Amino acid sequence: MVQQTAPGSLLGTLAYMSPEQARGETTGRAGDIFALGIILYELATGEHPFKACSMVDLLHAIASQAPKPPSRLMPEIPLRFESLILRMLEKEAHLRPTADEVVQVMEDLPGDSAAGRTPIRLLNDSSSAGRRSG
User: Fold this and answer.
1) Rounded Cα distance, 120 and 99, in Å
2) In the chain, what are the domain boundaries?
3) N or C: which end of the chain has fewer CB within 10 A?
4) How is residue 66 annotated by DSSP?
């Protein structure tokens, strides 16, 4: 988890930091979507989407460079999955999908049937993080 401890001072795992965090700005749920996008990219390709030789270069890459499309590394990746990952890695937070959109696309991907699985309910974007249903 990344926290801003003081203006311009960051604490957290740089490899999964969102562009807004890399710029020293506040972050929210969209930052979590970005981090999940990095994880999905790594799972799909075996590589981190942003290459760098130093922490400063990594922050610059996260904040300003587009990742290589996953299909260049794994040609068999479904187009919808690649599109989802790239949307999750958008530099501007407002362009990233919501958690509900991520779940919907993931459920619609080819693979194991959803039959027999119990769906989970995610907090919607307008709900309080501390409130639970059920």
Assistant:
1) 12
2) 18-108
3) C
4) P
Tell me the C-alpha distance between 20 and 27, whole Å.
Answer: 6
Residues 44-76: pLDDT tens digits?
999 999 999 999 999 999 999 999 999 999 999
Helix (H, G, I), strand (E, B) or coil at 51: coil
33, 78, 77: which is closest to 21 by C-alpha? 33
CA distances (Å), 40 to each of 6, 11, 35, 107, in order?
A: 30, 23, 9, 14
In the chain, % of residues over pLDDT 90: 64
Pairwise CA distance, residues 63 & 127, whole Å: 29
pTM assigned to the model: 0.76
Q: For residue 122, how many C-alpha atoms fall within 13 Å in the half-sphere facing its CB?
A: 11
CA–CA distance, 60 with 64 (Å, rounded to integer): 6
pLDDT tens by residue, 102-134: 999 999 988 755 555 555 455 555 544 444 444
Question: Residue 16 carries which DSSP code?
Answer: G
Query: What is the full DSSP assignment across 87-120?
Result: HHT-SSGGGSPPHHHHHHHHHHSSSS--TTPPPP
